[in-house]
Specification:
heterodimer, A: 7-stranded mixed beta sheet, 4-stranded antiparallel beta sheet, B: mainly beta, 7-stranded mixed beta sheet
Amino acid sequence: EIVLTQSPGTLSLSPGEGATLSCRASQSVSSNYLAWYQHKPGQAPRLLISGASSRATGIPDRFSGSGSGTDFSLTISRLEPEDFAVYYCQQYGSSPETFGQGTKLEIK
Amino acid sequence: EVQLVESGGGLVQPGGSLRLSCAASGFTFGSYWMTWLRQAPGKGPEWVATIKQGGNERDYVDSVKGRFTVSRDNAKNSLFLQMNSLRAEDTAMYYCARHMWGSFDYWGPGTLVTVSS
């Protein structure tokens, strides 16, 4: 199965700053089938990005995804207070679908 | 508005059983694959099981094959996960999610399963 490694484990930033989260796959992700999710405590995880770069319905354009092959990124251009959460990447190009261990984005 | 709400979690002894339910609303439930995922403390989510629209095609992660059974009732907009022979390593928050071409576009808030003596 494909192992996804996210970095950094924790990112401490201030509102208004930009953030870049990384997701590296142990082998190439077929057709760039890579998704990103946001998860806040006690809430349902929220799909942000699918297909490596397509924003899901209702997701603000400050969220963008990029990358291909084995290296992918999620960029948040100007952090809002509600963006502080844990972010997961997921690949669905190979069975079984697998997730990274997460990056916690915390307020500095 | 799409809503998914899980129920049925709790504390169970090793070797015991639980049946999780997921109530769906806000979309045509019978038109979508549905999935159960879980997340153990301190880890990323893990795919557990998927069931296709008609309910006859199902797939499971290797670690639960033969112990867990996913099913659905399209008339009642409901998804189920029967979990037997539970182990300590099954302890996790369990989520139901709508499967959308391999990603999961809507999730419920989860139900906690704790396997402990």
